[in-house]
Design a protein that fits this description.
7-stranded mixed beta sheet; 14 helices; Aspartate Aminotransferase, domain 1; about 450 residues; 3 domains; alpha/beta
C-alpha cells in the first residue's frame, strides 16, 4: 500500500495535473514539401514555385491536412463534393467516387451478382477493361458483334443469352452512344442486369438522358486519358439504394460505408468481403472541378462536329458511321467507312497531307485492346493459377459453359474496325477551323470518290 506521506492527490480527486503543457513541437506530417511536390506536378515555372513556397512557409499549417476521405473533420470532403456534383450533372440518385474506371466496373459487376459459373455479354469493340473486369469477377465474357454505329448490336444480343447469362455490358465507345432503348428491352425481357461502360463517353446522352443512368449501374473513367479528369479516377452511378450499398460494400472492404459500421447485417447478403477502391482526396480535388466543366466540354465537342458534318457532301463510296443519337453523342471523333481498305489508305494519306488528323487501322494493324480478337488475356483463356479460373471453373463447366475465342466470331467488328477512318476533333476549333476541315474532307473525298446526293447522309 502506498505511503500516505508520499501519495499525491490524483487530478481526478482535485489534485494538480501531472502534464499541464507539451513543450516539444514537431512538424506537420504532411506540410509544405508535399504541397510543393503537387505544385511541381502542375508544371509551374521555378519563379512561380519560389513564390508559392514563400507563401506556404509563412503560414502555420498546424498539424497539416488529413487527406483520407474518412475522419477528415471537414464538413464536406472533396470526395463527397465530387459525388454530389456527379448526382447533379448526371441526374442520378446515387454516386460513388472510386480510384479508376476499371475499379468502377469490377465493383459494379460484383454488386450485380456477376461471379463464378456466370457469363456477361460484352461488345466486340470497346476497351479491354470491360471484359477484364468480368474475368476478375469470376465470370466469363461472351463477345457480341457490333453494328455500323460500332456499338453493340442489340439484334445480336438475344442469341447469345444462356442460362448462365446474368448481365449485359454495353460500351459507349469513343464518344459514341449505344442504342440503350433496344438494349434495355432485351435485358428486361430476360431479367438481366445492365452495366453501362461509359468510360469513353462521359456526358453523352440517349434521347435526352445521360448515359450511365439507363442500366443498373453506370461506370465512368474520370481520368487524364479522357475528356475530363486529371489523373486516375472513376465513378459509379445507380438509381437503386441496394445496388449502391452492394457496390459500396465491395469498394469499402468490410463495410466502412454503413451507418453503424460494426452492426450486425440488416438483411441477407449485406455483408461480404471486398477491397479498397476508394477515391483519394487529392484526386477528388481535381476531378470535382473537372466534372463541373464536363457539360461545357461536351457542348463544345458537339458544336464542332455538327459544324463539320453539316458541310460535308455525300459520296457513293463513303458510308458515315451510324449515330444512334446524333444530338447526344459526345462527338470528339468523326468516322466513316470507305468501300475498301485500299481506298481508305489513299484517303487517309491525302487527309494527312491536308493537315487533317486522320487514321485507319487497315488489314495490317498491330494488336489493339479495343477489339475483341486482340484481347489476349481473355482470348488465350489463361488464368493466373493452374486451375485456369474462370474458364475451367468446375461450376462453369457443370452449368454447361464452354467458350472458344477466334477472329471471325464477330465479322462486322472484324471488318469495320479495320476499315473505319477516324478523324480526331478538338473542342477548341472555331467556326473557321470547322469550315477549313470540312472543306479539306470534301476536297479529298471528291478526288477519290463520286459525289452522290442519294448516298448515305452524315446526319
Amino acid at each position: 500500500m502506498a505511503d500516505e506521506r508520499t501519495k499525491e492527490k490524483l487530478a481526478l480527486e482535485g489534485g494538480l495535473k501531472a502534464v499541464t503543457s507539451i513543450e516539444g513541437k514537431g512538424r506537420p506530417k504532411i506540410g509544405v514539401e508535399e504541397f510543393m511536390s503537387v505544385a511541381e506536378r502542375f508544371g509551374f515555372s521555378e519563379k512561380a514555385l519560389a513564390k508559392m513556397r514563400k507563401a506556404a512557409e509563412a503560414d502555420d499549417l498546424g498539424e497539416g491536412p488529413f487527406l483520407p476521405n474518412y475522419y477528415s473533420g471537414l464538413k464536406e470532403t472533396k470526395v463527397e463534393a465530387y459525388e454530389k456534383i456527379a448526382r447533379k450533372v448526371f441526374g442520378s440518385k446515387y454516386a460513388i467516387g472510386v480510384n479508376s474506371g476499371t475499379s468502377a466496373l469490377h465493383a459494379a459487376f460484383i454488386a450485380a451478382g456477376v461471379g463464378p459459373g456466370t457469363e456477361v455479354i460484352c461488345p466486340a469493340i470497346g476497351f479491354f477493361a470491360t471484359s477484364a473486369a468480368v474475368v476478375t469477377s469470376g465470370a466469363v465474357p461472351i463477345f457480341c458483334d457490333v453494328d455500323k454505329s460500332l456499338m453493340i448490336d442489340p439484334a445480336q444480343i438475344e442469341p447469345l443469352i444462356t442460362k448462365r447469362t446474368v448481365a449485359i455490358a454495353p460500351t459507349h465507345w469513343q464518344g459514341g452512344i449505344c442504342d440503350m432503348g433496344a438494349i434495355m428491352k432485351v435485358a428486361r425481357r430476360h431479367k438481366l442486369k445492365v452495366i453501362e461502360d461509359c468510360a469513353q463517353a462521359v456526358g453523352g446522352e440517349f434521347k435526352g438522358r445521360r448515359v450511365g443512368t439507363f442500366g443498373d449501374f453506370g461506370c465512368f473513367s474520370i481520368s487524364g486519358y479522357k475528356i475530363v479528369g486529371g489523373g486516375e479516377g472513376g465513378l459509379i452511378l445507380t438509381q437503386n439504394k441496394r445496388n449502391w450499398e452492394r457496390a459500396q460494400q465491395f469498394i469499402e472492404c468490410g463495410g466502412l460505408w454503413r451507418p453503424v459500421r460494426f452492426a450486425r447485417p440488416r438483411y441477407k447478403g449485406e455483408l461480404f468481403c471486398g477491397t479498397n477502391y476508394r477515391m483519394s482526396e487529392l484526386e477528388a480535388a481535381v476531378d470535382v472541378v473537372q466534372l463541373g466543366k464536363m457539360p461545357a466540354v461536351v457542348k463544345r465537342f458537339r458544336t464542332v462536329k455538327h459544324r463539320i458534318l453539316k458541310r460535308l457532301r455525300t459520296y457513293g463510296e463513303i458510308e458515315p458511321q451510324v449515330l444512334n443519337d446524333p444530338e447526344g453523342e459526345v462527338g470528339y471523333t468523326l468516322r466513316f467507312y470507305p468501300e475498301t481498305i485500299k481506298l481508305g489508305r489513299k484517303i487517309v494519306a491525302a487527309l494527312q497531307a491536308e493537315n487533317i488528323s486522320a487514321s485507319m487501322r487497315g488489314d495490317k494493324g498491330r494488336p489493339d485492346w479495343h477489339v475483341y480478337h486482340s484481347m489476349f488475356p481473355v482470348t488465350y483463356k489463361t488464368g493466373p493459377t493452374e486451375d485456369n479460373y474462370p474458364w475451367e471453373d468446375p461450376l462453369y463447366l457443370k452449368r454447361g459453359g464452354s467458350i472458344e475465342y477466334n477472329r471471325g466470331d464477330c465479322p462486322v467488328a472484324d471488318d469495320l474496325f479495320d476499315r473505319v477512318i477516324s478523324i480526331g476533333l478538338n473542342q477548341w476549333y472555331n467556326a473557321a477551323d470547322c469550315r477549313h476541315i470540312a472543306g479539306g474532307i470534301n476536297k479529298v473525298l471528291s478526288a477519290y470518290c463520286s459525289e452522290d446526293a442519294e448516298a448515305a447522309p452524315w446526319l
